[in-house]
Design a protein that fits this description.
Blueprint lengths: L3 E2 L9 H12 L16 H18 L6 E6 L2 H13 L5 E6 L2 H10 L4 E7 L21 E4 L1 E2 L4 E2 L10 E4 L16 E5 L10 E6 L16 H6 L9 H17 L1 H22 L3 E3 L10 E6 L5 H10 L2 E2 L10 E4 L6 H24 L1
Parallel strand pairs: 1-13, 3-4, 3-5, 5-8, 8-9
Antiparallel strand pairs: 2-10, 6-7, 9-10, 11-12, 12-14
Helix pairs in contact: 1-6, 2-6, 3-4, 6-7, 7-9, 8-9
Length: 363
């Protein structure tokens, strides 16, 4: 039976990425060696790293605009502290928008480095919306936001204008929609939520914002040192970077971000239309802030849970259980998830409606 993978991360990747990476595990570039055993300094892997970094800038429209792309380690969680360590001035402050669990975790790390101003938060409403009315302190070293909130199913549709550097955690919607990426001075994203295998972290940074914190930065946490070493300061996650390259190549061949955005919007519209139409379900996020990557929804009556769970499991659907912070269900519709899979879920939701009506008539 075909599986329909809605996992929030590690997530679905294109089938050709699985096939090419599997072949590389056996024999990479006809070298007689596995991608798992080659030197990260070998000519073949250096070419992988160089192409991956270049493709990132190309797809984001940042070529020749003073940005560097890095593949690091430690996930977005390490970036929570690398950002303030590199950007927050000594005795300075930073501004944060609190829109979910990961934003809150980033705030906790920033507080270790200096004054951290939370300009707005939706925590009181269990993060079911994106705050829009707030003021960013002009004297802050940077403003930090999270573009998409995987757990709560919300997504920023616009970003504030400010004269200070803007930092964005795009872990769960990187490469999914068209934006003017020059409005960000630093973007970071864990690879496992739309881009590749777990183990690599993408950082895209405008070089001119670095070297101004007046801090002594440990070498392994210093963006400038990683730039100078071309993401080879320490041994990179070779396999994870390779799967990122394959996914970036796939995305380019699909027509780039603009093309995949249209598909993502079609998938999201299909599912949200059913959530809104079907009286058995209700969405958890405010409509205007709904994520096109992660749709969160509940059953109106939990007595239907057993029947619904049985139906979606029989249909080959995997990974739609909601996070414990929200409950219910979460359908993660990352780039590689086909429209067909969303239709299967919608059909199951419609089937549940029929089953419930039949039972009501029987009773």
């Amino acid at each position: 039976m075909k599986k329909h993978n809605y996992s929030a991360g590690p997530c679905i990747l294109p089938q050709e990425v699985f096939e090419k990476s599997a072949q590389a595990v056996l024999d990479f570039n006809n070298s007689g060696l596995s991608i798992l055993e080659i030197s990260h300094r070998s000519k073949d892997f250096v070419a992988v790293m160089d192409e991956a970094r270049a493709l990132v800038l190309e797809l984001l429209g940042l070529e020749g605009k003073g940005y560097q792309a890095l593949f690091l380690q430690g996930g977005a969680s390490l970036e929570f502290l690398m950002v303030p360590q590199n950007l927050m001035k000594v005795d300075g402050k930073a501004a944060y928008l609190d829109t979910g669990t990961w934003a809150n975790n980033a705030i906790k790390e920033a507080k270790l480095f200096g004054e951290t101003v939370v300009v707005a938060s939706s925590a009181a409403e269990n993060y079911n919306y994106i705050p829009t009315e707030y003021t960013i302190p002009a004297e802050a070293s940077y403003f930090h936001c999270t573009s998409n909130n995987t757990i709560f199913g919300t997504q920023m549709k616009s970003f504030p204008k400010t004269d200070i550097p803007v930092v964005c955690d795009m872990s769960s919607d990187i490469f999914s929609r068209s934006l003017d990426f020059t409005q960000f001075d630093l973007i970071y994203a864990g690879a496992q939520k739309n881009m590749g295998a777990a183990g690599a972290t993408l950082v895209v940074v405008k070089e001119e914002i670095l070297g101004k914190s007046d801090r002594t930065i440990p070498s392994i946490l210093d963006y400038e040192k990683h730039i100078k070493a071309e993401s080879m300061y320490n041994t990179p996650s070779v396999f994870a970077v390779y799967t990122c390259l394959l996914t970036l190549q796939w995305l380019k061949n699909q027509g780039g971000i603009a093309a995949i955005e249209k598909i993502n919007e079609s998938k999201a519209n299909l599912l949200y239309n059913e959530i809104d139409r079907n009286p058995l379900f209700i969405g958890t996020a405010h409509t205007k802030d709904r994520s096109i990557m992660n749709a969160t929804f509940l059953l109106v009556d939990e007595k239907n849970q057993e029947a619904f769970d049985k139906l979606w499991k029989e249909a080959g659907i995997s990974g739609i259980a909601g996070h414990r912070s929200v409950g219910g269900y979460r359908a993660s519709m990352y780039n590689a998830l086909p429209l067909e899979s969303v239709q299967v879920l919608v059909d199951v939701m419609k089937k549940l409606e029929v089953v419930v009506k039949q039972n009501e008539v029987t009773v």
